[in-house]
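Next comes this protein:
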Amino acid sequence: MTQTTDGSRVPAAGQREPEPAPARDEREERPTPAADEPGRLRRERRAAALRSADHVLARPGMLGTLRERLALLDGVQDLYDLDESADIYGSGVVEALEAKVARLLGKEAAAFFPTGTMAQQVALRCWAGRTGNPTVALHALAHPEVHERKAFSEVSALRPVQVTSEPRLPTADEVRDFEEPFGALMLELPLRDAGFVLPTFAELTEVVRAARERDAVVHFDGARLWETEVHFGRPLDEIAELADSVYVSFYKSLDGFGGAAVAGPRTFVEEAKTWRHRYGGLVFQQFPTVLSALAGLERQLPRLPEYVRHARVVAAALREGFATAGVPWARVFPEEPHTHEFQVWLPHDPDTLAEAAVRQGEETGRLLFAGAWRRGGPGLGLTEVSVRAEGLAWTADDVRAAVSDFVERLPAAGS
């Protein structure tokens, strides 16, 4: 966190807003209802603009109506026999999803969890018991450090230590030379708060080797691992093979109702299921969420490489559009996105950028920036851009034209 001249607290550069709408980091001051009223009204306008816009780069399913969300289950009879008995405490369709995830990731077994926060705590708690060391080495921007209210230490008796705070994944030398022992190295792939960034596959292999040299296990926070095949140039099972255990999410990239899974050795997964029960994660019936996850794996997973490739077209057009418009210090990061999501930084206050983005959607039906804007530093705002099925219809010319229209809604430099 950084402190402004008026004493308020704002997220440091590179930090992300919670998802989909979780609690704030406990270090962040909560605005009073009256102080937050303008922001609340703008969020409502943004949501309305996203629903009504004719052209968007992505329309996240989680923001849909109940009717639209339930439509995700249309056709699931082709994915699982709906005449089978419903699941009870992890049986039936839950076991089918677990087996499918294990196959996709090339692991012996997998366990379904209602949340990723629970899944990763359980996985790392199991490894702590096996290694005898509760210390977890991770990035300063890793999701548990920024968005989970110190759950590792408060709930699971784990001790997180930060290998680096640079806007990239830890290097092999940083892991090898870290000043204290750790039982597990946790790597978030991609690292969202740094810009959805990834190392090269060779770099990732070296980082894993460095951890193993220190007798540590390696756990992948793969909430968005599904998106990484294009960047790494490897199939999912070959990527996951590097890690001792892998966590994946079913709602971030795959648009499911929720849920997560941890995959790894069979004995490890059986132990994780025991802890899942102790943590309250053995839910009586979960078939709607599980069926939505099966639908996501069938329908969204095969399309992710197409989204990633088109995100690179969109990112290049954004850079060109801002350069043509003469916007100083406009930046797309990474310049060539590693996944179908990336950051855009502009030299304006976040409120100014948010208002321009909403007005563009309301007045033109073309919503270029559908995400929230937040402070990235003095006079800087940043947002996340996601490219999904709806974004495939945007040509580079479309993006450049939308940039020009957006910039016209911003105050002139220095005003």
Remarks:
- The longest strand covers residues 380-386.
- The first helix runs from residue 33 to 52.
